[in-house]
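Dear colleagues,

For the upcoming journal club I promised to circulate an example of a predicted protein-ligand complex. I picked one with nicotinamide-adenine-dinucleotide because it came up in last month's discussion. The inputs are reproduced below in full, followed by the predicted structure.
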Amino acid sequence: MNKNDLIVIGGAGGFIAGALARYFRERGFTRIRAVDKKPLPQWYQRVPGVESLCLDLSEEANCRRVCEGAAEVYNLAADMGGMGFIEHNRVECLRSILINTHLVEAAWRAGAERFFFSSSACAYNTELQKDPNVRALKESDAYPAMAERGYGWEKLMSEMFCQEYWAERGLPTFIARFHNVYGPRGTWDGGREKAPAALCRKVIEAKDSDSGQIEIWGDGQQTRSFMYIDDCVAGIDRIMHCDPLIATPINLGSSELASINRLVDLVEAVAGVKLERRYQLDAPRGVAGRNSDNTFIKKVLGWEPSFPLTQGIERTYRWIEQQYHERKAGRRTVS
Ligand code: NAD
């Protein structure tokens, strides 16, 4: 790709797309157009040298406007959050279909060379995820379909749009199914945060208030894999530029399975505390277990996410701790 080609990134006021804009900027790309519906002061990061636009991408006219002249379009815009958010806001999650529907059409009309869609492990059949000792999910496990209600079905339908834009209209589309992404500069408070950030914040609060306790959603035995943000953006770049992956959904996640209890152990170790765990059995907990089968990504890319969870949690904790104290001191924070 030419360094002066226009790259459009949707959802760039958010966690992953903000990191992606920085990633391309640091690699010398000169024309990056970052778009999000959030007002600019609320973006998690604003990257110098990147054109940043506040526009709602569920509006067709805005999608046409941002895709004008684009060589590559990345759709990471979605109304999303952790289990607490997606279980209680199914309409909002489903409405994200408007974003991808208009953006892929606009990219095709603009003659873009490549289009990327951020799908999710929530697109997989939930029937296969009832046991914490999971069999890792492989790409073919999405069908027969029984995705997460709302959020997961939107992802599955948008994947299909991407596949048909390739099959019927010849737009090369690329689809990654992310498994829990975490790291600094993401949501850590307010109800949309996911487990790693939420647990870091809860441990920081417990330390600060000297409560000696932490509330955990579920019984703590539910398992997931967690991918550090640097692996995620590197993976997006590799997937988007691998022609054998056109219109072929692929897992992008760590294959290191960890229970929520283990995650708490790691956060406690970084914080230097040991807390009494109070399990909230009626809180949203999602599926019992989920892991990423990385056989396909290793075969096709010769690579898989591998950033160690202990180091990633340490970096995430330190960043959230700093944010927490900034906020307490009355300064503005990103979440
Ligand atoms: P995020 O909430 O931090 O970022 C999403 C951004 O999209 C937000 O800034 C939001 O304002 C923006 N957005 C929402 N509706 C919009 C609209 N109509 N127009 C323009 N912008 C809009 O979330 P994230 O963690 O960075 O997730 C990015 C993508 O990755 C999403 O598609 C998400 O579903 C997917 N994903 C994330 C994870 C994860 O663990 N973080 C896991 C699986 C899939």
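Two points we might discuss: The first strand starts at residue 6 and ends at 10. The chain has a mean pLDDT of 95.

See you all on Thursday,
B. R.
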